[in-house]
Amino acid sequence: MSRAFNFSAGPATLPEAVLRQAQAEMLEWDGAGASIVELSHRGPEFMEVARQAEADLRTLMSIPDDYAVLFLAGGATAQQALLALNFAAPGQTVDYVVTGHWGKTAIKQARPYVNVNIAADGEAGGFRDIPARADWRLSKDAAYVHYTANETIHGVEFRDIPDVDNAPLFADFSSSIASEPLDVSRFGVIYGGAQKNLGPVGVTVVIVRRDLLERAGQPRADIFSYASHAANDSMLNTPPTWNWYLAGLVFKWMLAQGGVEEFARRNARKSKLLYDTIDGSGGFYRNEIAPGVRSRMNVPFFLHDPALDAAFLKDAKAAGLISLKGHRVLGGMRASIYNTMPEEGVQALAAFMRQFQQAHG
Ligand code: PMP
């Protein structure tokens, strides 16, 4: 059996060591007489797995004590609705900065509950750049300001945390969480589905400043209340235990690899190699994102002749490089190179791209 280098945008590649450990523990976890996925979430075995995963994520991301860390089902999309329900009064104004597809979905989920002010929108420019901070039109009394730290489809990433002094900053970090050091204290809420940088799909991490949990929000069932989830250690109902366990293995692996500082260095090298390969191709490959906001995680690119796309994907697969087809919204190609993508994978892709150009240029 041979594993390819997998550039999928999510669900994405997992560390082989993690998959092997999960395989070894699949039938019986740590002398428990059963798999961890077969045991009660309230039993001592899973409680320890859950506690350790949270402790490791806190260490990995340097999360301050005045932030709650929730492990929830529902994906990032459900959180996009819950943010409005939990942190804004009915019809209250909230500010959204849109820099790609996922910023738009965030608005769609919030709109039934709040008055959305689009403070800035990069769509007119094809989402190839981030609107200058000076041009944002923030509201005076917004419940929060929301932005997407990394746009997974358009390949646009904020390289700095924006200054917004009027309201707490909420950020969708689905596709860049734990990819470099981050000052969590600048945020009200950070959230992300785990299926990109943190491991398996099916569990979503929500990091929320505790004082915000006291906001009344809107009438909602208990199951949609972050405060209730926090008060119950994310065990208000049965949590996605298998996914939580797997994410915990990924956290341990990331810490052993050197933590977010080390991943920041690797991610900088990986993305530079890929952008250099594209920019140095004399137009055979192209990426149109403004250089200062190019994503380190998702690199969309186009071949100069779309008629070559099918051959590119076929030959890449034969070379052990899979999941390079771009998102249907954009077409072309996309290489997702999260923490778990090894540098050798990106080196292999860059070498393949040069060879393919030589053969078809
Ligand atoms: N936000 C971003 C930045 C994403 O990349 C995605 C998924 N690709 C989502 C939100 C939606 O996540 P989910 O499928 O977990 O709801």
Automatic annotation (TrEMBL):
Residues annotated for pyridoxal 5'-phosphate binding in this entry: A76, T77, W102, T152, D172, Q195, N237, T238
Cofactor: binding comment: Binds 1 pyridoxal phosphate per subunit.
Aminotransferase class V domain segment(s): 5-349
Cofactor(s) required, per the database record: pyridoxal 5'-phosphate
UniProt pathway: Amino-acid biosynthesis; L-serine biosynthesis; L-serine from 3-phospho-D-glycerate: step 2/3; Cofactor biosynthesis; pyridoxine 5'-phosphate biosynthesis; pyridoxine 5'-phosphate from D-erythrose 4-phosphate: step 3/5
The enzyme's E.C. designation: 2.6.1.52
InterPro entries: Aminotrans_V_dom, Aminotrans_V_PyrdxlP_BS, Pser_aminoTfrase, PyrdxlP-dep_Trfase, PyrdxlP-dep_Trfase_major, PyrdxlP-dep_Trfase_small
Keywords: Amino-acid biosynthesis, Aminotransferase, Cytoplasm, Pyridoxal phosphate, Pyridoxine biosynthesis, Serine biosynthesis, Transferase
Protein name (record): Phosphoserine aminotransferase
